[in-house]
Amino acid sequence: MFPNSSVIFQATRRTLSFPGTRSGGALGLLGLFLLSACSDGTYLTDGVVLINTGQESDAWTSEPVAKDVLLEMVQGTSRTTLARVPAPATSISIGTGGPASAVASFEATAFDANGNAVMKGSSVDLAIFGFEDASVPLFMGRAGGLSRAPENLVFPWRRPQVAILYHAYLLISGGDEASSNLDVYDMARWVAAPTQQPLPKVPRSWAVSGSKLLLIDDTGALWLDMSTYITSAVVPPSGLDNDAILGGETIGSPGDPQYIVGGTRATGEPTDQVLRVDADGSLHLIKLHTPRLGAAAAIVNGQLLVVGGSDAGAGAEVSNSAGTEFNELPFESDAKQGAALVALDEENVMLAGGRDPATDDEISGFRSMDLTCAENCSQVEIAKAAFPFTHPRLFLLADDQLLAVGEDPTSEETHVFTFDTGIGHALNEFALRTPRKQASAFLLPNGQIGVLGGLALENGNPASSVELFFPQP
Q1: Sorting pLDDT into bands at 50, 70 and 90, what band is 349?
Q2: Which pTM does this prediction carry?
Q3: CATH of domain 5-143
């Protein structure tokens, strides 16, 4: 059963749960099951948000010092102020009201004496059925830097794979050790799950569909239901070659179609195969026009964009809105392998990193692509915006700023930067709280970016903390 309910979950009187979970079976345990009690055992009336600063003991005392904390409930673009209290704050009452049935998150912002935001924190989305007796954990960190979340992972990892289950659970496995071990970090409670059963396969590639994991290794694929830990056979779509997608990166968000793109893998033969995994568990094979190796891929306006990885054919291809076929875009061929790709909006994307394997030229810097270009299109190199790092990842922070993560090609140290896409193109580095190498970066279900795994530079031991970047508002 997943996770270990005797440790992670408590039977409660009031439940805030994750949107999309079912009520029956083992997954009835998945959700934010909350219990607050007075010292005499009676239930408290008011719900509370419990503020946690994780492994950062100086969060409240660092300059500039926080003066007060604003707590809000966020529903889409709507914000409701729930409280404003003096800092430091460890528990904030949210009363007994609240919406009777709504999906929302909780967000806390700490301000200094000059009204500048110096700390931030946000929960995952929750299905709310009133506030009475609820207890909502919330992790806050210093704005404009990284902070280590509460508790540590169980297993050591080097460049692990990360998937998200039910918009709240980080599943961590695979990686350079080709491990079948499974770590789970619960972002609703901000706790690491106890030791889990190993996965039945080492996931060379994987995807999430509802409560199930699609696990793919050299011998084939299977489904693993995380509510029961029961496996079942996979019926592959006609024409799928398991070897052609093995090791491909999974592109797509929880609840949306996910694509295992064979052409993104770093080794093997170029391939045109892409496996689409729908939210209902159905599998579909779609093919690129050009076989690729080491390509970059991202979702842009709900469609899969694949760039580079071949010195022939179009430099980019995009799926149609149904995700059934690809259309070539009029960009010149791009042989670069190992680049990162992120959408800036519905019409523009940014790339960083990668190199041409034929010439082994220096690693490419930042460059942009205008997807509305109609003919004779090419990537636009951004002058003086070098990014000499391997294993790059790009994430959108705001309309004019990205977060870029990469490794030094010699030392393998993981570096984290912000990059301004507007005037100036400033590239500013932020120190990890646990300097490490061979880590993985990923987008969290609350919209933040996290870094986990790797080896600590100080002593070579596993870096077991999960670090989150808190943007400066």
Answers
A1: very high
A2: 0.91
A3: 2.60.40
